[in-house]
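Morning run. Coffee first, then this:
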Amino acid sequence: MSITIKYFAVLRERFGRAGDSVPFEPGMTVLDVWKRALPDQGLPENLMMAVNMEYTRKDAKVQDGDEVAFFPAVTGG
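And here it is:
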């Protein structure tokens, strides 16, 4: 199977698409998903991420069929 990826806000605009899909490999982390989907893009520092709609860290393991979302941190005042 595969991992479904969703990009939100400026990431969607920057990459020109709302998402991607990458093949699942045992032991993959959220960071590995990013690197496979966007090999020429470094992971931004203030990036937030979620696996199956739960906030997580870049070193979190993913499972076959998971959905990984990337979005910029929201600031306000």
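The helical segments are 10-15, 30-37. Good start to the day.
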